Amino acid sequence: MLAPQTPALEPPDRLLLGPGPSDVHPRVLRAMNSPLVGHLDPAFLAIMNEVQDLLRYTFRTGNRWTIPVSGTGSAAMEAAFANLVEPGDRVLVPSNGYFGDRMDSMARRAGGEVVRVAAPWGRPLDPEDVRTALEAHRPAVFAFVHAETSTGVLQPDVSALTSMAHEAGALVIADAVTSLGGVELEVDAWKLDVVYSGAQKCLSCPPGASPLTLTDGAFERIRRRREPARSWYLDIGLLEGYWGNERSYHHTAPISNIYALREALRLVAEEGIEERWRRHRRVAGALKSGLTAMGLVMLADDAWWLPSLNAVRVPEGVDAKRVTTRLLTEHGIEIAGGLGDLTGRIFRIGCMGHACRPGNVLRVLATLGAVLRSEGAAVDVAAALAAAAKALD
Ligand SMILES: Cc1ncc(COP(=O)(O)O)c(C=O)c1O
Question: How many alpha carbons lie under 13 Å from residue 14 in its C-beta half-sphere?
Fold first, then answer.
């Protein structure tokens, strides 16, 4: 067989303003280039401790059990469900977005009996509906998506949801993939039992090591499982050997991803987590003002707007796929279309981490506006830029 004649790697220059990955900070890329050490080298064990401390700061938690899971956000998600859910357990999951559906699949694979809280895509869960579902089904686990990337909806009233779940005897799993490091998230104050996230959204880090935190109570419940978790790789009882006091081999940690995550989290700590939340609100707020002034309509109501992911309706008669393709190929800007029933009906514009900067907002508004106009939509690009500039001022 002839050896493939593969050219040198030259990824195109892109501005990543989609639902993730987001643009990575140059310091994170440099950290990723550092020479490898072994995953049991004392120098790496010290790095692991540092990453755990930085993750606790970012999650706003004192949870001892706070680690990066090897793999993308779905790996941390699967770690949560595979360990918390035992065969026969009832699991209450949301139906207001794409990632609630993924929770459903993962809970079923873990042997859970899934029940749903109904809510339309584009709206958060109504606490009263959650209460009714908790009382009707008495689940062992209640899971919800804090920041729904498919619809740009931020779940309000998190403390109310956790306290009603706890009263009903359920542990709470929260998906914070698109909120950690960008949108207010208080793991301890909101009494969340298990929270997972991803690296490639508001942390602006390449995907591959995904934050997970759980309380001692959740860990105890995992320790008392009737049968082992159905995943060997993600079994928290086994991972305890590596991330706990023993520091013994379970699997080879993705060293370069851990370096990258450490640097990304150092950037969070330098900026300050609350300042980072404020920046996302301010800069993404300017994007929202610009989109609205352009004549577009946001999918989510202001009361549950998610700064890190702005879902905006596609104007009548416009082919969404053509617009996102033209933005990418003619202007080097990545934004996304909708998923599921929202395919062709919304654009999803991320404003995450390092990409969440004023210049990027002005650039995407000008470019999206120009492309929409040339596709026949009656949008006011000048008004969009003026509104965004005013909001940023
Ligand atoms: C809310 C949410 N949950 C889970 C995931 C899964 O993460 P990953 O694609 O990194 O596996 C995503 C990814 O977009 C997400 O947005």
Answer: 20
CA distances from 326 to 183, 351, 372 (A): 30, 20, 10
Q: What is the pLDDT of residue 290?
A: 98
CA of 390 to the centre of ligand 1 (A): 33
Determine whether the shortest distance from the Cβ of 73 to ligand 1 is under 6 A.
yes
8 Å CB contact between 239 and 247: no
Q: Is the CB of 99 under 6 A from ligand 1?
A: yes
**pLDDT band at residue 203, thresholds of 50, 70 and 90?**
very high
Cα gap 202→208, rounded to integer Å: 14
- 342 DSSP assignment: G
292 lines ligand 1 (CB under 6 A): no
Q: Using most ligand atoms within 8 A of CB, pick from 16, 153, 178 the residue to mutate for ligand 1.
A: 178
Q: Which residue from 99, 145, 155, 210 has its CB within 8 A of the most atoms of ligand 1, so it is best to mutate?
A: 99
In 3D space, the residue among 201, 105, 106 whose CA is nearest the CA of residue 146 turns out to be 201
Residue located nearest, by CA, to atom 15 of ligand 1: 177
149 C-beta closer than 6 A to ligand 1: yes
Phi and psi at residue 312, to the nearest 5° = -130, 140
pLDDT tens digits, residue range 307-321? 999 999 999 999 999
For 114-128, write each residue's pLDDT tens digit: 999 999 999 999 999
Tell me the percentage of the chain whose pLDDT exceeds 70: 100
155 lines ligand 1 (CB under 6 A): no
Joined together, the tokens standing for residue 204 give 């602006």
* Other CB atoms within 10 Å distance of the CB of residue 382: 11
Q: What is the pTM of this model?
A: 0.98
pLDDT tens, position by position, 183-193? 999 999 999 99
- Reference 16, options 7, 4, 8, 24; nearest CA is 24
End-to-end CA distance of the chain: 62
Please count the other Cβ atoms lying within 10 Å of the Cβ belonging to residue 370. 16
Q: Which of 31, 62, 64 is nearest to 47 (CA)?
A: 31
Q: Nearest-5° angle of CA 162, CA 163, CA 169?
A: 90
